Amino acid sequence: MSLEKILKLKGMDPRYPIIQGGMGIGISLYELCSAVGRWGGVPTLSSVALDQFTRKRLLAQGEEVIDVSPGRMDFIEATRREVEDTKKEAGVVAINIMCRLPLFYEMSVKGAVEGGANMIVSGAGLAINSGEDHTTDLPFLVEKYAGKNHNINLVPIVSSSAIANKICGNWTSRGYDTPDAIILEGPKAGGHLGWSYKRIARSENFLKEFDLFDKLLDPVLVVAEKFGGIPVITAGGIYTHKNILYALSRGAAGVQMGSRFAATEESGFSNETKKLIIDAKKEDIVIADQSWGSPCVFPFRYINNSPLALEKSGEHFCICTGLFGAAGQDNTNLLGTKGFPRKCPEGYVKEKGKICPAVGNTNYKTIGILGSEGYRIDKVLSTQELMAELIN
Which neighbouring-strand residues pair with 45? Predict the structure, then answer.
């Protein structure tokens, strides 16, 4: 079966139905996404910390950058440039904007629109209206900056038919179009997973109870059909060409893949982190417990022999600093000070009385995030080599 020209999206004509997952912090950037687009996939930038990473790239290219604070350029301008520059190389570009970054969500959307993004993917929370608060209201914000008749694909990430139905119902009840596609992310993904820590702990067999194809896909396809035949893209545990064919045979319009692309030459992971991935065994990839998991409250998988994970440093643990470290970035070099200043600069921690663990944190030791099938990766490939493997 040929994979060419299967996925149909508004204003886009991708060669293959393979969407590279938008991985942050600093993994899915210009270099990786340009290569993915060049070889026929749909590239997805991560919006996280682009004010730092795009700044670093532009300076390395010899461009002049105006800082709005130490080590950070204007966030909207950074997003616009990352999207625009990637699209020039890749032909098309998507961007993943996390709902759990409310301080940066609207700025990310505005920058993505100005840069010419073809698709905005949004997860780690629900991109819907909450009363008068439009902070993470995706259709409202895109219409605000791109107009009502825009040509941008709006694609929420869901983990169940109930969530898919809630998002579609919310958008249509307020006069917006349905999502242009839905990404259904199963329990084998690296993160952020769409189940609470308590729900995972309560399950006798988490992977079996919420199996992507045996349990989740068919009910989501029913919701997609109910709202006019929305394309459903499956994610979480997709590893081989055979897996892609199976997903398509079950009714998926395409697949999203993260871990495979995380271990490519063009990935923003440092060489140290890529070696962690190559060396990882099946039992090394585990779900973080709530005591030291992501401050955005959604679970994730990590490599338990990552330098930061081995340390288990209690109050000094922060997934943000660990992921900066995994991308070879140490903010102490940017800020000239030790650790993150004041409150959480990314706006993750919203629970009353909680203090962001990044405050004063100087520990940028690496933590590797990886999907459950990532242990099968045994070498770093170029994106060209990986795409050739996936389509044949």
Answer: 95
pTM: 0.92
Domain-embedded: residue 248: yes
Q: Hey, what amino acid is at 323?
A: L
- Flag whether 343 is in a domain: no
Number of domains in the chain: 1
Q: Identify whether 351 is part of a domain.
A: no
Look at strands 67-69 and 72-73 and give their pairing: antiparallel
* Omega within 30 of 0 (cis) for the link into 150: no
Per-residue pLDDT of the chain (392 residues; tens, 9 = 90+): 889 999 999 999 899 999 999 998 899 999 999 999 999 999 999 999 899 899 999 999 999 999 998 888 999 999 999 999 999 999 999 999 988 777 788 999 999 999 999 999 998 877 777 655 666 799 999 999 999 999 999 999 999 999 999 999 999 999 999 999 999 999 999 988 888 888 988 998 999 999 999 999 999 999 999 999 999 999 999 999 999 999 999 999 999 999 999 999 999 999 999 999 999 999 999 988 766 656 667 788 989 888 877 776 555 567 777 787 888 877 655 555 555 544 555 555 555 555 555 566 667 778 888 999 999 999 999 999 999 999 99
Cis bond upstream, residue 25 (ω within 30)? yes
CATH number at residue 61: 3.20.20.70
- Give the domain extent around 54: 18-268+377-391
Domain membership of residue 86 (yes or no) is: yes
